Amino acid sequence: MNMGSRKAAWRALCVVLILMLIHLLRDIISFRSFGYSAQLTRSADSEPVLSEGEFYVLKNVFHYKESQREREGLRMLSTLYKHLPAVKAKYSFAAPTITTFIAELLEDLEKKGITNKPWELARKWVKPTSLIPARAPGLGDVLTALSTAKITRADLSDRGSQLKIILELEGEQTAVFKPMRYPREENLEDAYFTFDRHNGEIVAFHLSRVLDMRMAPITVGRKVSMETEVLPVATQRLSDNIFRNEGDACFFGECLYCNKKWPVCEKDHYLEGAVVMWLPKHYLSTELHHPWGRTYIKHKLAQWETDENYCRVELRNYDARKLLDLIDAAVFDFLIQNVDRHHFAQASGAPESPVVLIDNAKSVGNAFVDWMDILAPILQCCRMRRTTYEKLIFLSGGGLSQAMKELLDSDPLAPVLTTAHLLAMDRRILHILAAMSACKETKGGWANVLI
C-alpha cells in the first residue's frame, strides 16, 4: 500500500470513529441508555417533564420509536411533574409510627411453631377478597415449609412463556419454582422481552402485605439441589431436559422462551429461585384482557396510548369497584415496575374480588428506570380509593424502603433487592402522589378524586 492509500484509509477510519462517537453521545443524551446520566424530556406541549437525574419513559425506547406526540393518551404526565417538587417537599420524612407498622408485619414472619399443618392453614386463608389475612400468625411456618419441605415430584411447566418447574412438596402441596436468571445488581435495558426475575415474585408478595392489598400468592426464596432434590423425583419430561455443564446441572424446557441455548444452571451445585404457592384449584376465573394492556407489536399503539379520554370509554364497561381495583393494581405495578399486566385475574364466581396479583416476575428489572406509562389508569381516570392514597402517604418519606428491606431480610435469599431498587420505590411513591395532586387540581378537589 503506498503512502497516499494509507492516508486515505486513515482518514476513512477517523471519519468512522467520529461518526460512532456522535451516535453514542446522541444515544446517551436522548434516552440515557443505562439510567445513570441526567436527561430532560419535553411533553407534546414542549414543557419540561423530567427533573434532572430521573428517567422519564413513555415506551420502551430501545424497541419503539413512537414519539410522545403519537401517545397523546399520556399527555397528562407533564402535569405530574409540575406537582412533583411540592410533593417531594411535603412528604420528605417517614411517618413516626412506621416502626410499629413494620414490627407487626415482621412478627408474623418471625414467630415459628404456630402450626404443624402449614398447607392447611394457608388454604384456609384464601378468600375472594384476600389471599392472606392482615394479621397472619403462622405465616412464618408456611414460608419455612415452602423453602425446606421435601420435594416429592418435579415436572416442567407447560404454561406461559417462561421456564419454570412445578414442584409437589411433602404434604401434597403444589408450588411453582421460578429460577434465577439475572444477578440482583444487573439492570436490564429492556422492560418486556427479557427473562423473568425470580426476586420480583418475592418482592411482590411482601409489597402486597405492606400496601394491605394481600392478593399476591405466598412466595419465598429457596435454593435446591438438582442432584439430590430434583433429579430423583423428576418426571421423564424434566429429566430429558437436564444436562451438565462443567459439573453443574442445567435444564431447559418447552415454552416460548425455552431453548437449550438459554438454559438455567446451578451455581455451586445449587439452583436459586422463588417458590410460589399454588392457589387452590378453581380459585381463579378465566383471566380477562387488561383494558390498559400493551399491544407488544412494534409501531402499533393501544387505544389508551392515543386517547386521553380513554377512561370514559372504560367506565361504560367496568363498574366503579372494578375500575378502582385496576387502579390499585397500577399502583402496585408501578412501585415494582411490573410492565407485563396484559391480563388480570379475579376469584372465580366472585365479582367483588380485587385483581389477583399473579405473575409479577417482569418487575424489578432496572432500579434507575421508571416506566411512567404504568400510571395511565391513574392519570386518565383521576380516581383512587382513599385508603390506598392514605397508605401511600403513610409509606412516603422513606417508609416503604424501610419496610420492604426489613421484611425481605427475613427471606432465605436475602438480600433480595439492592439498595438502589429499595430507594427507587420511595421515588415512585412520590410520582404517584404527584399524579394524584395533579388530578385534584384538574377535577376540582379531593372529593372528586378519592373514593
What does this structure look like?
- A hairpin with an 8-residue loop joins β1 and β2.
- This protein has 451 residues and is an alpha+beta fold.
- It has a five-stranded antiparallel beta sheet with strand order 1-2-3-8-4, sandwiched between helices. Strands 5-6-7 form a three-stranded antiparallel beta sheet, with no helix packed on it. Strands 9-10 form a two-stranded antiparallel ribbon.
- The longest helix is centred in the first third of the chain and has 29 residues.
- α2 packs across α15 and α6 crosses α14.
* Assembly state of the chains shown: single chain
Order of helices and strands: HHHHHEEEHEHHEEEEEHHHEHHHH
Distance N terminus to C terminus? Answer: 79 Å
Total number of helices: 15
Mean model confidence by pLDDT? 85
Low-pLDDT runs of 5+ residues are 15-68
Number of DSSP-assigned strands: 10
SSE-based structural type: alpha+beta
* Outline: globular
Rounded radius of gyration (Å):
24 Å
Highlighted features:
451 residues; alpha+beta; 5-stranded antiparallel sheet; globular
Q: What does the secondary structure layout of this molecule look like, with pairings?
A:
Elements: H1 3-31, H2 77-90, H3 98-110, H4 118-125, H5 139-148, E1 151-156, E2 165-169, E3 173-179, H6 198-210, E4 219-224, H7 226-230, H8 236-239, E5 242-245, E6 248-251, E7 264-265, E8 271-277, E9 288-289, H9 303-306, H10 310-315, H11 320-336, E10 343-344, H12 376-381, H13 386-395, H14 399-408, H15 419-443
Helix pairs in contact: 2-15, 3-14, 4-5, 6-14, 11-15, 13-15, 14-15
